[in-house]
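User: Let's play a game. I give you a shape written as C-alpha cells, and you guess the letters that built it. Ready? Here's round one.
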C-alpha cells in the first residue's frame, strides 16, 4: 500500500469518526474547544503507520531523515520531532478503532498463540521505571523477559482476527474467551492452552479447541484433517516473527506507555495492510503426503 493509498484509507475513517469523537468530548465537558495543530490526526496516524512499512528501525531517524526531508509536500503542516511525539497520544483511541476495521474475517479455521514483548533488558529490570505497574516478568520457551504478552488469533490466510495485550506473567488461557467471541469452527493452539473447562466453555459457543497432547497424557481419537491442520500451527509463529522484525512492534526505547501502545497499534495495522501474508493452501498431493507423515 502506497503512502497516498494509506492516507486515503485513514482519512476516510477519520472524517466521520472525528465528528462523533469530538462531540462526545464536548458533551462530557472534558474540553471546551478542540484546538487544531499543524498536523491533523489522520496525518499523524498515517505517519506512525507508514513508519512500520518503511525500512527504518528508529522512529526518530525515520521522522527527521525521511519525513522532514522528503515528505514535506505530502504533509505541509509538519511539526518538529518533539512536537510530533507530544501529538502521538492523541491518536491512540482512533488507531485502536481503525484497527478493528482492518482485521480479517473468520474462515472456520483459526490459530492462537502468544508472544513476548520485552520492554527492557533483563539486567535493567530493577532500574526500569517507564512501565512500572504495567509490565511484569514472565517466561516463555525462550527464557525470562520483562514486559507484556501479545495474544494473537489469525485465520488460515494469515489475517489477524483478534489481538489482546496482557502483562508478561499472565496465563495464555486467560484472554481466550475474550479473543474468540466472534469466532466459529475450530481453534488450533499449542499445549499451553490445554484446559478442559476452557474447551467446554468454547464448545458451548460453537468453537472447538484443538491442541496437541502432552507426553504424560493418554492418546485420544482425532480426525485426520484436524491433525493436518494442527501441524500447520507454525503459521502463527511466522506472523509473530513478521510483527517483530518487519512491523517492529518490539523495542526497548519507549519513554511513555501511551506511545508504546501507539507504536504497537500502528505496527498491527501495518501488518494488516501487508499485500502478502503467510497462508496455508493444501493441494491434493500435499494432503496425501501429510497424511502419510501422520
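Assistant: Ready! My guess for every position:
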Amino acid at each position: 500500500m502506497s503512502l497516498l493509498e494509506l492516507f486515503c484509507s485513514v482519512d476516510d475513517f477519520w472524517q466521520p469518526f472525528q465528528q462523533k469523537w469530538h462531540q462526545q468530548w464536548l458533551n462530557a465537558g472534558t474540553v471546551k474547544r478542540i484546538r487544531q495543530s499543524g498536523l491533523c490526526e489522520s496525518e499523524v496516524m498515517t505517519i506512525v503507520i507508514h513508519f512500520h512499512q518503511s525500512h527504518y528501525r528508529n522512529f526518530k531517524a525515520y521522522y527527521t531523515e525521511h519525513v522532514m526531508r522528503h515528505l514535506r509536500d505530502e504533509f505541509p503542516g509538519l511539526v518538529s520531532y518533539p512536537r510530533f511525539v507530544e501529538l502521538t497520544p492523541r491518536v491512540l483511541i482512533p488507531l485502536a478503532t481503525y484497527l478493528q476495521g482492518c482485521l480479517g474475517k473468520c474462515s472456520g479455521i483459526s490459530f492462537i498463540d502468544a508472544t513476548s514483548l520485552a520492554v527492557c533488558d533483563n539486567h535493567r529490570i530493577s532500574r526500569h521505571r517507564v512501565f512500572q505497574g504495567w509490565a511484569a516478568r514472565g517466561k516463555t520457551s525462550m527464557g525470562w523477559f520483562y514486559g507484556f504478552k501479545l495474544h494473537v488469533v489469525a485465520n488460515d490466510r494469515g489475517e489477524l482476527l483478534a489481538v489482546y495485550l496482557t502483562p508478561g506473567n499472565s496465563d495464555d488461557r486467560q484472554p481466550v474467551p475474550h479473543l474468540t467471541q466472534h469466532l466459529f469452527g475450530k481453534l488450533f493452539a499449542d499445549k499451553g492452552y490445554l484446559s478442559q473447562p476452557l474447551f467446554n466453555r468454547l464448545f458451548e459457543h460453537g468453537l472447538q479447541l484443538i491442541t496437541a497432547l502432552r507426553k504424560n497424557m493418554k492418546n485420544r481419537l482425532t480426525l485426520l484433517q484436524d491433525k493436518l491442520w494442527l501441524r500447520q500451527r507454525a503459521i502463527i509463529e511466522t506472523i509473530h516473527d513478521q510483527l517483530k522484525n518487519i512491523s517492529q512492534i518490539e523495542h526497548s526505547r519507549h519513554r511513555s506507555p501511551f506511545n508504546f501502545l501507539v507504536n504497537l497499534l500502528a505496527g498491527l495495522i501495518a501488518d494488516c495492510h501487508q499485500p502478502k501474508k503467510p497462508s496455508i493452501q493444501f493441494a491434493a498431493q500435499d494432503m496425501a503426503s501429510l497424511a502419510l507423515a501422520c
